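Model: Ready when you are.
Researcher: Fold this.
Model:
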Amino acid sequence: MLQIVFCVLLSFGFTASHPQCLDYRPPFRPSTDFLLCTDYQNIGCCGDDREILTKYIQKMDTLSRRDQEVCGPFIKDILCQECSPYAAHLYNAEASENPNAFPSLCPWYLFQFLTLCHRLVPDLSVPLPLPIPDKDYCFPSILNKTKSESVGTVKISDQGNCMQLCVKEVVNNIYTPTAAAHANDGTHRLFVAEQRGVIWVFLPDFTRLEPPFLDIQNVTYSSKRAYDERGLLDLVFHPNYRFNGLFYILYSTRFKGQHVSRVSEFKVSRNMNKALRSTERVVIDIPQPATNHNGGKILFKDGLLYIFTGDGGKAGDPWGNAKNIGSLLGKALRVDVDNRPDGQAYGIPPDNPFIFRPGAKPEVYAYGLRNPWRCSVDRGDRVTGQGAGRIFCGDVGQDKYEEIDIIENGRNYGWNGYEGNACFRSGICSNIRNHEPPIAVYGHNEGKSITGGYVYRGCDSPNLNGLYIFADWANGKLFYLKEDNGSWIRGRICVGDENVCVNGGLSGRHVRYITSFTEDEKGELYILATNYAEEGNFGGRIYKLVDPSRGGNPLECQTQSVIASTLSPGTQTNPFTPITETTLAYRLVGAIQRNTGRVEIRWDNGPWGTICDDLWGRKEAEVVCRALGYRMAVAAKGRAAYGRGFGPIHLDNLRCTGNEKSLLECPHRGWDNHDCSHAEDASVVCL
């Protein structure tokens, strides 16, 4: 019999927004075919479903034929939630050290189950469904989230009570970007880091230079699963980079068999667009006890290097790292990379707050952080300098709240006693006497995982001056904070429609997952995003944020001189090209009917090639048929249904919504990157 406790059935705890398995690891794509839990065949938390199938069969053998027909689907659904990519949320695993034994069910579904199958739940009467704190994380509503949220663009249609801005796409066709930075050397280049471990150089007109500036893929550590929080997480240039050529990166790697967050120093080569990998000097290795909550930001202020770390992961900081000044986790650290004692990787600034505290780590600058994801230094007002030097951090919350903090010397930001302004654990928060409250908080009814941003100090959009602009990773929403007599007012940013965002490449759409923000040498603000949250996804984009209502004075905004970048022999240039309906050419081959056949594509007059049938379905076929001038797709076929092609296999693992104007807008593994043979060529039937 199913042993279910009523309080467990209606016990809902909802945490951070991203998918996560019961073992706190990210979900992945199984390599075996599922027989029962087919909803999670493409992405989930189970390598196979054989054990669940065995439990299901054993349970069904005990039921009458009537109960098998009526209750069998419920039993299947409930058992299979262990495989859901949101299993940690459904079982309340991240919010508690003791996950629930039963997944969270939406009230209407729970009511149906208890009404029709109450005989399976002895000693339990049919209850009235109780309200739940977050309808996003209960089954079966979560199933729609799993199917829909991983792809697609964000377009805010409700323009009421929000600031309307536009975006201008300046970079596409890169793997998931995690960070970008300028070198402050007068060249106005932008250096973009991909999570997989590659850094690219983009010229001021967003022409990409090849080969990459740095490639450390072979030492960058992650599980290659979807939603992994590890990888190459940040880069920053030394304040004197123009003269010493030094820059720093934060990345996940393995050291002595353990996962660590590593900050390393590198030096540029004589080729200004190529780093010397052999110059790596490890500044610090921080062991990580879990795969999540790695934090992720490094920055310079007043010549000192700040390193922001997460609490080490799992549920509620079980090790108490954030509040422990004897730990490097859950902290803002501050070190001196220029003045190093003999044999040391860095020095300790003399005004670090805990250098004389017994048992404390001298690197600690501030503490009580959960998972700071993106921090920035306010460069100050262009004219008055007001606000310069403030460090803003977005700290990802757990059950209920996301927060923004201004980081200051010696302050305690409260975790794991406080989440936002609310007490998270009464036994801890009641003993905190020096809690530094956040400057702003928003609840999980508005978003689930903050991506910290920047205070806008550019010239092109003067109405934005002084606004702190940030986002939520889970839903792609944009927000701003406006300072008002020492307090902060929060507002929504809506991307405008085609009547607002006109000309100049402006748009009201951006891909969903905002991973970071950056600013260029002039202070203009950019959004880094991806259409599928996986380091191996070739759906990365960068957008410039633009206020269409008022531009800056061109005589003021274009006065900065640009030092020309010297291109060494062998450097190739790849100019930015927007993706349009005609970027790819399509044809159908191998069938008598013109509307049927193997799909072949080519890009920029290159060779014709095929598409692998991994994840190939009707939505992908819709994009192809519409591009060929047909009304709709009737069928999507695989396994070389109309014969095997020849030459390259251009695309693999496409995940389209069906509304894209080109297959290149769909998440995929990258051009010519696949693990297929021509026996897996994809085909369509159009109408």
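Researcher: Now this one.
Model:
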Amino acid sequence: MSENRSAQQTLLDEAVAHHRAGRFAEADSAYRRLLATEPQQFDALRLLGLLAHQRGADDEAASLLEKATAARPDVPETFNELGVVQRSRNNPQAARASFEQAIALRPDFFEARSNLAVLLGSQGDLEAAQAHLEMLGSLYGDRPDVHTNLGVVLHEQGKLQAAMNCYRKALALKPDLPEVHFNLAQALEGHGDVASAIDESRAALAIDPGNPLVQTFLGRQLHVQGHRNEAQECFQNVIALKPDYAQARWCSTMTELAVAYGPGENSDDSWEAFARSLDALIDWFDEKRRGDGPGCVGTMQPYYLAYHQRNNRSLLSRYGDLCVKLMQQWVNAAKLPPPIARGTGKVRVGIVCGKIYDQSVWTAIAKGWCQHLDRDRFELHLFYTGKIIDRETELAKSLVAELVVGLRHFDQWAKQILDRGLDVLLYPEIGMDYMAVRLACLRLAPVQAASWGHPETTGLPTIDYYLSAEDFEPAGAQAWYRERLIRLPGLGCVYEPHNVPFDAGAVDHAALDRSRVLLLCPGTPYKYDPQHDAIYVEIARRVPECRFIFCHDIQANVSVMVERRLHAAFASAGMRFDDHAVFVPHQPRAGFFGLMQVADLCLDTIGFSGFNTVMQAVECGLPVVAYEGRFMRGRFASGILRHMGLAELVATNEEDYVNLVAKLSTEVAYLQRVRNRIAAAGPVLFGDLSPVRALEDFLESVAREAPSADDG
């Protein structure tokens, strides 16, 4: 008997030596010879199973490791190894059971608990994954990978501050981890701290300088801050090293659209550069390269194109065709079936939005839909692709039949939406949210429509209708849209006042001299196009005692660029900008309402009007001067004022605009009469249900025309 065991051990040692040396065929033969003499030999079963996994034969590996666990059910390592193989075989339930058994045998088993956490996270059970990783943190707090993995799970849940704390703990233990610096950079971006995100990206690149993903991310963040040339340098560096890296080429094209303009720059050059680059990008994505395209769509969007006073239909249609063509690669690979509405009962309406929280797209557009669409006629399914959860999110959940939130991957969102058998799918905005634009490139419902959360045609051939408003669209506006334009009555939405108590502290800024005529310029700085700078110079000339109040952008450099440009414009007229204007800090809502309480006039942004801003100004009783633009995006203020019967506050050219501001600034009695009329007429803007009633009729009409399962 001892001789037999000695021979078995010799054969096992021989097999292990071959295995370690990478001589897999010889190792396989030796393990099998051993099992021929002893079929239940634990070590041979286990090691041959691991060898099979290494060679990609996972079915055989699972069978062998299952026999090994039966032979020795007290060995936690084998259950962990079996779990790894089962996960590789796409059997997550079996893998979970194996990892859990390994942990039951040894609660402090690092690899098994870590594997289970990763598996749970991949299945979307992030809270359970978090619990296991927190347990590992208490046991292995000196391991940076524990803190990194916990940070990733917290990050996926939108718990950005906690995630950043974990990443920083990992880096404190081991500073030279480029992937953790990059994770931290992405969390900082989500937290709104773009400057720190740039610093962490550069730290990652100092360790791993050739990483194209980090370099491209850095370029995107630099563009957000207005550093267009530096951003382009990042993208071109990537392209020089990896000419076929599609995402860098995509971002390079989108970055041709400047965020803001400094002295001597103009928006026309940016528009023309983008148009040329887009055509080149379309040509570059030939059939051979389209497979890399789905990962590009949405990473950067031509958001700033809407701030150019041009008809962008043709340009955005070319962009939209490219997006849909690239996403079709994913559709083909996923074998996505065409949508079929159920065709019975209530009209099933889906709403896809990344802004279901206290944010303007929700408060101005989607909230009214969810509150007032007739529940006896419509069943609402809300797909929230964002991560911020607040009281408005909870309200949204209470208003609809279903709120889907927290999915991680694009394919999960697409399947969830398609499985609902929707009649109509609505997008309150397309052009800002990464996931929304990707989903909008697919046909997930028989009828699909967008609205004006981003006030520009989507350019997508997959979007059938554009929901706008009678008050905002001029005659002939259909020419601006690829979609069929639907003009809902009035303002096109149901809007309620905020009733925000203003923050008196916000108005204590030393520069707000109450003896001056305070002209609030409430737009974010990048809304101010250089072609309109002379208007502010002329107003200051006509009203020397005026003081423009601009608000800083969250990205400091954007404000600096615009402020330098305005300084130059005033200087060219022999005037000092600082004598007539001030930039105040970016304000939360209460502080912004505080500014409106002390201002004398609100000068709506020329070219890209502010719907929510003007509605808030009316709520505060603040007179607004509007310059009516050519396109819907430049007509929010004028539409609101005309709706109130205050067309006299609407200018249609630069001279009238300056004259109107001067008149209101110098004629105190007239200004007071206007204030009184705003107070009297303001309520007409709020709580108007006629747009929703018209939307109901539209939804029922298009749902009846769409093909359904009954038609088949």
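Researcher: Key takeaway?
Model: The chain has a mean pLDDT of 94.
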